Amino acid sequence: MEPRGDRRRGPGGTGAGFGTCARTGAALLGAVALAHTLWNGVDARGTALAFGVLVAVGELARWSGTEDRESAPLGAAGALSYALLGEQAGHPGHHGALQVVAVVGAAALLGCVPHVARGGQVLDHLTRRVLTVAFAVVCFQPLYDRGRLMGWDGPSYALLLVALLVLTALCDAVLAAATAHARTRWPFGPLLREELRATLGIGSAVCATGAVMSLAVAVVGLWALPVFSLPLLLTQLSFRRYAAVRVTYRQTIASLARATEIAGCTPAGHARRVAALSRAVGRELGLCEPHLTVLEYAALMHDIGQLSLVDPVPAGATSVLPAEEQRRIALLGGAVVRQTGVDAEVAVVVERQADPYREQPVSARIVRTVNAYEELAREAGPGGPLTALEKLRLATARDHQPEVVESLARVLLRGSLTLPQAG
User: Fold this and answer.
1) Residue 377: CB partners within 8 Å, gap ≥ 6?
2) CA–CA dist 13, 8 (Å, integer)
């Protein structure tokens, strides 16, 4: 008997096919643009070199391993400003769309070399960069080359650039969501919403800087690039420091969560498995990134209340205890979490995980269901996942929300998550 839910296409289906097509298309476009530029020569070599250096520096300074969608804002702003560049210091420009794609693609590739050497994954990032710049330059350069923008000056021209940048940002969000969907097979809708939310943050600064740099270079020349790129570079460095602090914060929480394992209250790796699977179920249900972070932290610390027990629960299996005992352990865990200085929302989720699901916040429902599944599957031995899911479905009257159980079944059926192993 299989978990109910529609089967999703595996790695060889349409999702992975889109990712392959996007990367292949970007590679072909970049190769054609580079060959065309080398054959016909580079127009305005100084301008091309200046923007290429700016993009390469931005890519060198990019950060990775964070929740922020645009990891190289300076490189993105430089690429967009070159794509929307018409005049330079009052002189008309004649660089074509293919030259822009070639310069940006080559500079981005050069800037990503150190990240590749450190084992970073840059293919999707480069694909987005090339395709997004191609979209922007195809929207702008034909209009400029044909003289359609000669009557546009002052505020009207600036508004036109902003409108094109907004369209480009929307294109980039759709492309990023589609690429993530192809790679992970997570639902496309929530991924797109997350990308659009991220666009309102650092994405707005990227678009504004790109527009300002393009307008400034048109008036005063290339000296505008270092002047207007410096604030975004400083912002990028600040984001990197913030990302480092956030990584350290998560590592601290993970270390606290291991206290129950070290004390022998729970099996090794239990908290990590529950956290990973809870995050996947939360994403399946469409939770946004901040809520996913709270969910992950609460799942890591959901058993910490067992440290206050005189007699440990056998194998840490709290899901089989009476409801009152589960609630007492959950309240003890919430009290411990509050003393650690972790976000109060995490403590609330830990405290509420033993309540009837109709009285719980969504995050607490997910933690309770995933924790019960992990314990039941571990006890059932061979065929444990199917047996555990059926037991959860039989308990949907009070203990587990049906939608959460079915989302868990879809995540497991899809095989989209590799859980940490015990030990």
Assistant:
1) 384, 385, 387, 388
2) 8
Least confident of 6-10, 18-22, 159-163, 372-376: 6-10
> Which pLDDT score, from 0 to 100, does residue 296 have?
92
Look at residues 86, 61, 97, 64 and name the one whose alpha carbon lies nearest to residue 76. Answer: 61
DSSP letters for 36-53:
HHHHH--SSHHHHHHHHH
Is the pLDDT at 178 greater than 70, yes or no? yes
- Name the helix (H) or strand (E) containing 331: helix 323-339
**pLDDT of res. 65:** 47
CA 340 to chain centre: 27
Longest C-alpha distance within the chain, in Å?
Answer: 81
Q: What is the pLDDT of residues 266-321, one digit of tens each?
A: 788 888 999 999 999 998 888 888 889 999 999 998 888 887 776 667 666 677 67
Residue 154 in this model has a pLDDT that exceeds 70 = no
| Residue 19 CB contacts under 8 Å (≥ 6 apart), including other chains | 124, 179, 182, 183
Q: How many other C-beta atoms lie within 10 A of the C-beta of residue 344? A: 12
Measure the CA dihedral 12/15/21/22, to 10°: -150
Cα–Cα dist 190/289, whole Å = 10
User: Mean pLDDT throughout 244-249?
Assistant: 81
pLDDT at 72: 78
Neighbouring-strand partners of residue 340: none
Residue 196: CA count within 13 A, CB half-sphere? 9
The residue ranges of DSSP E strands in 56-135, in sequence order, are 87-88, 91-92
CB 296 within 8 A of CB 423: no
Report which listed range, 8-12, 235-239, 334-338, is most confident. 334-338
At 87, is the secondary structure helix, strand, or coil? Answer: strand
Taking Cα atoms as reference points, which of 210, 253, 222, 215 lies closest to residue 79? 210
pLDDT over 90 at 134, yes or no:
yes
Q: How far is CA 21 from the centre of its chain?
A: 21
**Mean pLDDT, the chain, as a whole number?**
81
What is the C-alpha separation between 409 and 385, in angstroms, rounded?
A: 9
